[in-house]
Write a structure and sequence with these properties.
This protein has helices at about 1-20, 40-50, 60-70, 90-95, and strands at about 55-60, 80, 105-110, 120-135, 140-149. It is of the alpha/beta class and about 150 residues long. It folds into two domains: about 1-30, no CATH class; about 35-149, Pyruvate Kinase, Chain: A, domain 1, CATH 3.40.1380. Helix 2 (about 40-50) crosses helix 3 (about 60-70). The longest helix has 18 residues, at about 1-20. The chain is elongated and about 65 Å long.
């Protein structure tokens, strides 16, 4: 009996993970929403890095930095975080801070359509967009700016 219940629970969990939804009993908060779309962001970021021959990503927040750090762990791509206030408030700001390196090609992730104000980086005019639907009425939109420090 216990083995049957365990098998049923395991099957239900597998179906939920595979479908990415709990169907009609999915809560409005959609707890799986935060997990969707990260692979798409990594693919989009790699494309911009390749196009602009860059090896450095400047993330605008910890979540993006953590994801890209994980996706690019076996490569020569460096993921840094720009700390606006100068006081590290998380692991990435403390251990992977952006510091200027003249001549370095870089790509920055930013939630706004305008390039981030980061030091003396000269941003290119072209902008890429990573736009992934993460829930029924929500999408994750991050702009990718390329530039040279």
């Amino acid at each position: 009996m216990a083995a049957g219940v365990n098998a049923l629970l395991a099957a239900v969990l597998v179906v939920i993970c595979w479908a990415g939804s709990m169907g009609p009993i999915t809560p409005e908060s959609d707890p799986l929403r935060r997990l969707r779309g990260w692979h798409d962001l990594a693919v989009d970021t790699r494309a911009v890095l390749t196009t602009h021959d860059a090896r450095t990503v400047i993330a605008d927040r910890r979540a993006s930095a953590a994801l890209l750090h994980w996706h690019f762990h076996d490569s020569d791509i460096t993921v840094l975080v720009h700390d606006d206030d100068g006081y590290p408030s998380n692991h990435f700001e403390a251990n992977h801070p952006w510091t200027p390196t003249p001549g370095r090609r870089t790509v920055a992730l930013h939630a706004h359509e305008t390039p981030p104000a980061i030091g003396t980086v000269l941003w290119n005019a072209e902008t890429a967009l990573s736009d992934t639907k993460i829930a029924q009425n929500r999408s994750r939109r991050l702009y990718l700016f390329s530039g040279i420090e």
